[in-house]
Amino acid sequence: MDSSCKMRNRMQNRQAGSAHRLGGGLVEVDLLLALLMLGARVWAQVPPADAFNPGANAAVYALAFQPDSKLLVGGDFTSLAGELPVRLGRLAPVGHLDPTFYCRADGTVLAVLVQPDGKIVVGGSFSNLAGRARAYLGRLNPDGTLDDGFNPEVNSVVQAVALQPDAKLVIGGDFTSVGGQPRIGLARLNPDGTLDESFRADASGPVHCVAVQADGRIVVGGSFTNLACYTRPRLARLQPDGTVDEGFNPWANDAVHCLVVQPDGKIVVGGAFTSLAGQARSRLGRLNADGTLDGSFGGGANGPVFSLGLQADGRLLVGGNFSSLAGQARSCLGRLNSDGTLDGEFTAEADGSVFALAIGLDGKVTLGGTFTSLAGASRSWIGRLQPTGPVSQRLERTGSTVSWLRTGPLPELSWAVLEALQQGGVWEPVGLGEAVAGGWRWAQLPLPPGTSVRARGYVVSGHRVGSGWCVMEYLWGKPVLVEQPASQTNQAGSSVSFSATALGAEPLNYQWFKDGMALRDGLKVSGANTPVLIVTNLLGGDAGGYRLVVSNLWGTTTSAVAWLTVVGDPFIKVHPVSQTRDRGQSVTFSVVAAGTYPLSYRWLKDGVALVDGGRLSGTTTPSLTVTNVFPADAGNYWVVVSNRYGMATSAVAQLTLNPDLAISVHPVSQTRDPGQSVTFSVVATGTHPLGYQWFKDGVALV
Question: Which of 95, 254, 537, 644 is a plausible cystine mate for 54, CB 3.0–4.6 Å?
Answer without folding.
Answer: 95
